[in-house]
Design goal:
Number of helices: 25
Largest sheet: 7 strands, mixed
Radius of gyration: 25 Å
Strand content: 15-25%
Number of strands: 29
Distance between the termini: 50 Å
Shape: globular
Structural class: alpha/beta
């Protein structure tokens, strides 16, 4: 037995995809401690509560450790252990059977938030198998920003915190809680210490809102209206960068005429932001060089996400903050294998026309299937039947809008396989559950394919339990079983070597180096223009008719029309202690936030007879749930902040862990989707609340909510 702790450097992964560099102390084959690395490229020593607790899941008593095959009816919680050989054979047999009967497109491959190479290996498996249908929650996370950027300026504009910012405009982004997609709060806080001004657009008074020069407490669902008001101020007062606008933008005259009606005075009652505050904030952004807009998921989570993202990119453009240090940059990738080659896109040239959502006329460049349209294929056979699904790193029962619809779709599938670390409400409905390794138990590469211009080394720290396999190994074995062997590897670790080969590094050398990033090159448009049809930033889209969209970003009213029966406005936010629906089984984190808390203004609570810590019912036209009231003046009186991602691992599996008691997505619906991305309304929803009464007993599918 050794008394010495051995320190290994890696990066955070499945607990979050922020990418903090970690120093992990190992003793006798177990992780003893985890610390933030002061030299970390993204975090500079910072580590969040999830990262500190992340080792606890390796030895948790509820961890899945053997492949499981369903016994009895789906969802009854009865399982039998089987071998990995039998599990791979059975999954392959079932998927192949569906392919033989209905074609490969009748099999869907589903991924949650991308966390490592497993996302792209899954796409490779789908391509080599022949299915165009990779179902990902990008409709409400990343795709609206990325794809709107591709159509507007030819790239995904990423906030650059590695160079000096004069001003940072946080728009629906709260890095001190979420550290979203490489935007680690430590980098931002360092910019603020160095003098960067801060503007925060958020319905809630966050820690960063309290540090801001201006806090714009917006009505959820009106981000597009506010962005257009910013454009109105900057253009009307001629605060834009004339040289950049004249040389590098297309349609400025049209945009000028279009935003004339979006005055701060007209938008103030819509957005709830005072006209004077809108004007001051717009002027501050326009007069700061360089300024970065850090935009978060909330702008993507309603049917107007395309217009909102477009309006914000127009702001970046007319103020000349695109592809400049400290602005919103086009990140340059390191010398590694391109994404298209890695996923073998060449094997499925018909994918663009055969994907489920192609039938629904979503916008071009969207290459993953929106969950609402996947479920329509399962439940209604539109545009064609989908009969089997393989799910990894995901819990659709909690994560997809309209959880009852998700339950119905999963129950209707002929076959469902789920790879997981712990049993979840989704895994409990599977025919086969495959025990996955955690990110400390295998070699992996982080941030590939996210458009941030770097990749992160995630070397193996400790051994996994004998029968817990990395997702990339599971996929590689399925690939060898289902597809031509030439497309797969004898050893799954060779997948990593293939990706790194153009860099000249093997994985060991890469792990020693820690990360790879592309070179810093800015204002690339001076050499090659912008990758758009006009070669310029398209404030007015030249291909609008072909794309079937408005050429200019617009706002056509609230995502959901107001309803006097439901007078309050519902929204949600991520918790710093959990990752979507994950990790409520870890004691250290559950103690921090043991119950699903709904944030309510004291005035609203008093009007409803609600006191702090009361159980309350939150109801929308689509459903109702129970959460616990937390009174706070950080939210506006008309806004309810419901907790998101809640289920109860301590409950019984045959009750699906009370998946419907407090689950935010019981309250959402898919009857009205944004056409461009198939996005449902998750923000700005009409709701009402009341205190739980003794006679209340909510039920769904005979599962008790009490």
């Amino acid at each position: 037995m050794s008394d010495q702790i051995r320190w290994i450097k890696t990066h955070c992964a499945r607990m979050d995809h922020g990418g903090c560099t970690l120093n992990v102390g190992v003793k006798d084959g177990r992780i003893e401690t985890i610390k933030g690395d002061s030299d970390g490229y993204l975090n500079k020593g910072y580590i969040c509560p999830k990262g500190l607790a992340s080792a606890d899941k390796l030895t948790h008593p509820l961890r899945l450790k053997h492949p499981l095959k369903r016994k009895g009816r789906r969802g009854e919680g009865q399982w039998q252990e089987i071998s990995w050989g039998d599990a791979i054979a059975l999954v392959s047999e079932k998927l192949q059977d569906v392919k033989d009967r209905l074609g490969a497109r009748a099999v869907a491959f589903c991924q949650g938030m991308p966390k490592g190479l497993e996302h792209f290996v899954l796409i490779r498996l789908a391509n080599t198998f022949g299915s165009p249908n990779v179902v990902v929650v990008q409709d409400v996370c990343h795709a609206p920003r990325e794809i709107s950027g591709l159509h507007t300026c030819g790239f995904y504009p990423v906030a650059d915190f590695h160079h000096k910012n004069e001003l940072v405009l946080l728009w629906g982004s709260n890095p001190t809680s979420t550290n979203e997609e490489g935007q680690i709060c430590s980098l931002l806080l360092e910019q603020i210490k160095k003098g960067a001004q801060l503007i925060v657009v958020d319905p809630r008074r966050t820690e960063l809102a309290q540090k801001a020069k201006y806090w714009l407490q917006i009505r959820p669902g009106t981000d597009g209206a506010l962005a257009l008001a910013f454009l109105n101020v900057i253009i009307t007062e001629e605060l834009f960068d004339g040289n950049f606008v004249n040389k590098w933008t297309h349609g400025f005259g049209d945009l000028t005429a279009h935003v004339r009606s979006f005055t701060p005075e007209k938008m103030a009652p819509i957005t709830w932001v005072p006209a004077g505050l809108i004007s001051k904030s717009a002027r501050a952004y326009a007069r700061s060089q360089p300024a970065a807009i850090a935009w978060g998921n909330p702008i993507e989570q309603n049917i107007q996400s395309f217009d909102t993202a477009r309006a914000l990119i127009c702001l970046m453009a007319i103020c000349a903050n695109l592809d400049v240090p400290g602005g919103n940059i086009q990140a340059n990738e390191p010398n590694i294998l391109s994404l298209g080659k890695f996923v073998r896109a060449d094997l499925l040239p018909s994918k663009r026309t055969e994907m489920i959502h192609a039938y629904h006329d979503t916008i071009s460049k969207l290459m993953t299937v929106p969950p609402a349209l996947f479920r329509k294929a399962v439940l209604e056979g539109i545009p064609y039947p989908v009969k089997a699904a393989y799910v990894q790193c995901a819990n659709p029962m909690l994560a997809y809008a309209d959880s009852r619809q998700t339950h119905a779709a999963l129950m209707k599938l002929d076959f469902l396989a789920v790879s997981e670390i712990f049993m979840t409400p989704t895994a409990a409905l599977a025919d086969i559950v495959l025990p996955a390794a955690t990110h400390f138990e295998f070699n992996d590469i982080g941030h590939y394919g996210l458009g941030h211009g770097y990749i992160l080394a995630r070397p193996k720290i400790v051994d996994a339990p004998e029968e817990c396999w990395p997702d990339i190994k599971i996929l590689n074995e399925l690939g060898k079983s289902l597809c031509p062997a030439a497309h797969w590897y004898e050893d799954y670790n060779d997948i990593l070597e293939t990706l790194l080969a153009p860099s000249g590094l093997d994985f060991g050398q890469f792990a020693e180096q820690g990360y790879l990033k592309g070179s810093d090159q800015f204002k690339k448009y001076n050499v090659s223009g912008f990758k758009t049809p006009s070669g310029k930033v398209e404030l007015s889209l030249s291909r609008a008719a072909k794309l079937k969209v408005s050429p200019l970003p617009d706002f056509n009213g609230y995502p959901v029309p107001e309803d006097p029966e439901y007078p309050l406005v519902l929204t949600s936010a991520k918790s710093r202690y959990y990752l979507h629906s994950s990790y409520r089984w870890l004691e250290k984190l559950r103690k921090k936030l043991p119950h699903p808390q709904a944030l309510i203004h004291p005035e609203t609570a008093a009007d409803c007879g609600i006191q702090n810590n009361d159980e309350i019912i939150i109801e929308t036209p689509h459903g109702r749930i129970i959460q616990v009231a937390r009174l706070t003046e950080a939210v506006a009186p008309r806004v309810i902040y419901a907790a998101y991602g809640w289920w109860f691992p301590e409950e019984k599996p045959e009750a699906l862990y009370k998946w419907d008691r407090s689950n935010f997505n019981i309250l959402t619906a898919t009857d009205n989707l944004g056409r461009e991305f198939g996005t449902p309304n998750l923000k700005g929803i009409n709701c009402r609340i009341r205190k739980v009464r003794g006679e209340d007993k909510l039920s769904n599918n005979s599962i008790s909510w009490r």
